[in-house]
């Protein structure tokens, strides 16, 4: 690093993340990098507060406007104070994955914290008030924080009226009052919340000015959200705006509420993982799900719906001919007939997950090979009835191919013969959620990318 900074006196951008830089490295930066504006020391844990003290004495780094200190858990309040003194033009600081950071670390700096704040459990309303007053945020993502209360959301929504994207994960104090504050935002297009306390908070949101403007709504794990929530959702989001909807593990939803999804003709992706979707929906192909001309659904997730049957799959797929992604992981009643329905209409299918569908046989790979020419990702884990030789038929064309004949994990809630081990309870669903966590993280990532672009 000393050679680089010594030979590049006009260096503007330097990314040293995930390296073993020490205090000596920072001293060299403070001596040589007179023009440096962007510096990333993310997850560099070999330097200490003493290294940051060089920023106050050297000639370099005074023009820094962006500094990434994510994961640098060794920095104390004194270190943040030195950063604030030595880098007076600093505008943005990233402090993600900082479980040791406290309010005072934010307050002594007086700089704007970038709105991606995850794994910061000790930041309280005091810090978020300072963040809200120091930044004009358009998006914010907060994860794993138990100190943030309604007061924080009141400050954020008042001081940052242009907020468009909000993602809240594992923040247990998010309440109906918080949702009332969020509902006042006029430009909100993407909202992701988990474990919302009741239908009341969602009602505030939908009746607010941003209700009809929502493009993405993630209610994953909101156990108290019921059919009336979907009725309000269908009534308020009548404009062609809502494109991505996640209702996974909303266990109170029934077919009565799911009928309302047919009114949301602009949906592109729908996640019903772990819901209690019943056979009755198969009798409502017109009222519940419009014809293909009105519904351009590309991604459908029905994983861990233990009572999902062939007829339900038939009704859904016949109304969604443009499907690119279909996930039916952990659905013990599925048979080859369901795959025949899928392949008969979904000719553009690119990704399919049938893991844990124990009644599928060697006929399934043959159907997919013949009808789904664009299939690039196939997962057939715990498919005890599909021989490996048959599964290998799909491997040459697949970019990602998975297959096993292992026994179904007990937390799937049924045996390898498809017999239910226990009623579909919340604790079983929460365990099942672990296996679909990667899918949901990718969905959130796509959501963030779509809103930021």
Mean pLDDT: 84
Pairing-aware structural class of the strands and helices? alpha/beta
Note the total helix count. 17
| CATH topology category name of the domain at 1-114 | Leucine-rich repeat, LRR (right-handed beta-alpha superhelix)
Largest sheet features: 12 strands, parallel
CATH arch. level architecture of the domain at 1-114: Alpha-Beta Horseshoe
Give me the CATH superfamily of the domain at 1-114: Ribonuclease Inhibitor
Helix proportion: 25-40%
Q: What is the rounded distance between the termini?
A: 33 Å
In angstroms, what is the radius of gyration? 25 Å
Described by the principal axes of the CA atoms, the overall outline is globular
What is the strand content?
A: 5-15%
Uncertain residue segments: 282-294, 424-453
The level-1 CATH class of the domain at 1-114: Alpha Beta
How many E strands? 17
Strand order of the largest sheet: 6-7-8-9-10-11-12-13-14-15-16-17
Detailed description of the structure:
With 453 residues, the chain is α/β, with parallel strands linked by helices. The protein has a domain at 1-114: Ribonuclease Inhibitor (Leucine-rich repeat, LRR (right-handed beta-alpha superhelix), Alpha-Beta Horseshoe), CATH 3.80.10. 33% of the residues lie in helices and 12% in strands. It is built from 17 helices and 17 strands. It has helices spanning 2-7, 23-32, 49-57, 77-86, 103-109, 125-134, 150-159, 176-182, 199-207, 227-236, 255-258, 310-318, 336-345, 363-371, 388-391, 426-433, 437-452; strands spanning 13-15, 38-40, 66-68, 92-94, 112-113, 116-118, 139-143, 165-169, 190-192, 216-218, 244-246, 269-271, 299-301, 325-327, 351-353, 377-380, 400-403. The strands form two sheets. The protein has a twelve-stranded parallel sheet with strand order 6-7-8-9-10-11-12-13-14-15-16-17, with helices on one face. A five-stranded parallel sheet has the order 1-2-3-4-5, with no helix packed on it. Helix 4 (77-86) runs parallel beside helix 5 (103-109) and helix 6 runs parallel beside helix 7. The longest helix has 16 residues, at 437-452. The two termini are 33 Å apart.
